[in-house]
Structures are given as structure tokens and as C-alpha cells.
What we know:
Elements lengths: L1 H18 L9 H11 L16 E6 L8 H11 L4 E8 L3 H9 L3 E4 L14 E2 L2 E2 L1 H12 L8 E5 L3 E3 L6 E2 L2 E6 L5 H11 L13 E5 H15 L3 H8 L10 H12 L5 E4 L2 E3 L8 H8 L5 E3 L32
Parallel strand pairs: 1-2, 1-6, 2-3, 9-11, 12-13
Antiparallel strand pairs: 4-5, 6-10, 7-13, 8-9
Helix pairs in contact: 6-9
Amino acid sequence: MFGTQRARTALRRSMHRIIGSPPPAPPSLHQIELSAFKACTGLRSTRPGVSSLLPLDVVIPAAAKDSETLPYTVEGVRRNLRHPIGTIFVIGEADEMLCEVVRGIDATFVDENTILPMRRTDIAYTVKGVDRSGWLFQKLLKYAGSTLTRKSHYFVIDSDTVLIRPQVFELEGTPVVLHADEHHEPYFQVCESLLGYPRATELSCVAHMVLFDVARLTALKKHIERRFRCPWFEALVRNTKINEMSGSSDYELYGQWSLSQYPLDNVREYFFNSPLGRARLCAVADLERRYGASYRSLSFHSYQPREWVPPLIAGRTGIDDSGANANSPGA
């Protein structure tokens, strides 16, 4: 028996030398579908001259740590969000530095403790010694932004993300849903728990920005409240995976809801976003010239090394401005 086992081991080693490493695992359905979206460079929602008549307010939840990036976020919105823009609301703690920045960019500050009957201090969410209550509370604030606007739609963007190409978030009355590379399984599990049915797609909707249709969002909140018999924000907190550093996603939940409940009423495109170190922050016009051929937005996350610069999208010469490949998969 020992000799036979040794012979088998020798044979396996010999075969490994002959054929090399085992073949890589086949791509997942998620990877195949995402690759198809990436290949559609001719996007209708971002190109020179694009515009929409749909009026929007803008809601930006912000923390003091993002006071550095917030002016660039607002400048990017004003330069490149090609909708009639009403009020730009910045929601955050009544922090002196943050309030001063908001005044300087001519936006409207909203104290985060005034728009929900819940505060971040009501949320117990600590993972490996890191307090994540503020991170989760910001997600609730994005949904609560519906109480600030009188318009039918409002746009939410993260306070560390900058639009660097002209873009719209509806086309002929149909909202644009952006898909991202990230696939964080706990997000999808929480969505299934909250909605009560399987995910509509394996593709991520965590694109650092979203257009909220107030009617759709209201229907989502009511659906959750009927299922859990409590306010929607309590249900979102209770269903967050509190053993995960990132235990739920507002963007993913709204995206899954939209794609499942309104399957024929979405234009789906790839988000063409890249992270960049904060040392690279500069005038939005300069960011447009340097990176606008390959990306529609940049994100300056506080956790990225300040000097970090990613490679441009491999093999990509730029986003096709003609909009020739307008019918992206699932559009």
C-alpha cells in the first residue's frame, strides 16, 4: 500500500511538471455579465452635450473627515450633473469645520439629528474595536433625504466622489442604474432578508451615487415596514450583519428593489469609477482633463494611501463619446 501511494504521488508530481499549474476556475456568471457591461463603452448617459430636463435636488451625507473632499464633490456636481439642480443639501454632524466648508461652497447644511427619530448613538455597531455606527447611520440619512426635497427625484453622491464627465441619470424618462465591480456577498444576503425574495442580479449597484425616485423609494420603505412591522430605518439596522465591517448597503438595496420591481424600466450601465489618493485632489477641470477619457467619476477614499494612483483601465483607450453602443446588456 505504501509503495502504491508513493507511486501515485510521484505520478501527480510528474503530471504537474508536464501540464503546469491547474487551469484557472471558469469565470462566474457575475464576472461574465460585468465584462459585458464594461465592454459597452458607448454610454448614452455620459457624453459631451448630454442633458436631462428632470429637475433634481442633491443630497450628500458627509463626515468631518471628508471636509477635504466635499468642495470637489460639489464642484463636480455643478459642472457635470446635467440636470436642472435645485438645492444641494449636505447632511452631517454639527461640526464647526464641516459647517464652515458647507457655507463656503454655498450649499445647505442639515443637522443629521433633525431628520430621523434615531441618532447614530442609538446604533450599537462595533467590529474588531472599530465603531461603525456613523457609517451605517449615513446610509439611513440617504434614504431620509426624501423628507428634504419636494421634487420627484433626488441625487445622492458620496462626499469623497467627484464627477469628471458630463452625465445624466435618466434617459427619456427611464432612470440609469450603475453597476460596479464590487461583489460583497453580505450585501446581497441582507437585501434578500429585507425584501423577502432572491436577488435580481449578481451585479453590484454600489456605485458611490444613485438617483432616487421618491415614489420607488417610498414603496421600498413601505414594503420593508409591512414585512418587519417597524419603521424602515429600524428594520435596516436590525438586518445589518453586525459581525461584518461592511454589513449592509443602501445602494445595493435600492438597486435590487428597482431591478426586481421595475425590471423593464431601467437603463443599466457600468460605473467607470476609480479610486485615487487624496494627494491627487486638484481643480475638477484638471481631473477632467487627466482622467475624463477613461472614467466618469473618481473616489478619494480616506482609507486609500494619499499618493496612490491606479493604472488606467487595462486595454481601454477611453469611453466612446458617440454613444454608439447605447444598448448595454439589460438596458
